[in-house]
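Q: Protein A?
A:
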Amino acid sequence: MSTAYKPVGWNRNKLIYDAVLLAGVVVYILLYLKLAPLLSPSVRAVDTPILRMRAFGSLAFLLLTVVLAMGPLARLDPRFLPLLYNRRHFGVLTAAVAFTHAMFVLDWYFAFSATPKLTALLTSNTSFGSLAGFPFEVFGVFALVILIVLAATSHDFWLSFLSPPVWKAIHMSVYAAYAAAVLHVGLGAVIGGSSPMAAVFLSAGLVALSVLHLLAGRQEKAIDEAVPRIEAETGWVDVGDLHEIEEGRAIIGVLPQGERVAVFRFKDRLSALSNLCSHQNGPIGEGKIVLGFATCPWHGYQYRLEDGCAPPPFRERVRKYRVKVVGTRVLVDPVAVPLGTRIEPLPVADALSVQSSSTPMTRISP
């Protein structure tokens, strides 16, 4: 979070995250340069500059695959949530690695070109009607342009300047970049006669990413299609069992109007907030309590449990809901209180001690 649009709000976690990323890049490149010639006879015959550009190119594709896998992984298993906190850094590094790959390509193949290097790259082969000679480089350039645009607009200044819907639409183009990268790598391997390892590498990444998105999508669909249980007398919504909520975490329920609500448990007290972060509609309930604040797993935006407001000097707010416990069931009032209204978290022990009997429940029709 930033009120002054600082380039990066550095903290210990970000420094460690970035240090691990950079170390991983260095290790991958060194291992590729050392092991690739040993594992593939066809690679042994290539020049060192070509080996270097392949190392950076394969790493860029791997990083882009991981970037797109973070979201579904975190939804399927909360242990992957730490990867999401600084995903922008991961994306910027991916663009930098892809750019380095492109520079190696231009410097090796077009170092002595009489025309500008990029012009020579795009005009030296125009066999668009032939698969065997198709200029696969155009797909790489297309993917690189998208990655650079996404890296350049990754800061919250652009989110505010462009408006969240426009910014989000632009950043969804990362999937177009990935599709172009798949075509670039795939056609390049076919035309260049690369080793079978290239096909295995490409196929494994594509299949893994597709499976993860399908599994996460099925899980999200099941949540959206769940029929809410409604308390007959009050109309409050049963979102789950009290024992399902881990300390410092939340369970997510769906209200009759289709909105999701996150019920957090912190110091054995319950608080219900909208599951949509005001920053980019991130899933607050998939995050955790950090320093007493509900923290969105996407970019670390935080909200007070009492009123859904971000701590000063920040001004973001999310909807707040009333919550109660009947038996061991956690119920939420589907009508949000006015933004900024303070409601003290519900002590679980007090809620259990005052109730006498469970209230009849019913299901609403889909």
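Q: Protein B?
A:
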Amino acid sequence: MEYRIDVNEDNTARVVFNGDITFSENVAFRQLLKDLSVKDLQSCVFDLSNVDMVDSAGLGMFLIAKEQADTGGWKLSVTGAQGHVASMLKLTKLSDLLQG
């Protein structure tokens, strides 16, 4: 998993992911959350357009990100999920929790 954070002037961020989001990406995902926590965000969108696979640990990481957003007072949503990733988000109801 690789990611790029783009922050606009209005303190909205977009995180563009590339690659799978799995247990082995736990350290990188926590670094992403650390990077986001130092920004004064209003909202953040996780762009999953280039993600082919998310496992249960990856879904758990999304929940941790949602908790961080709620605690930090900013909104988190996901966009671009396709195929397996979209199915996993719907199956677990995370798509409802992380609506754009």
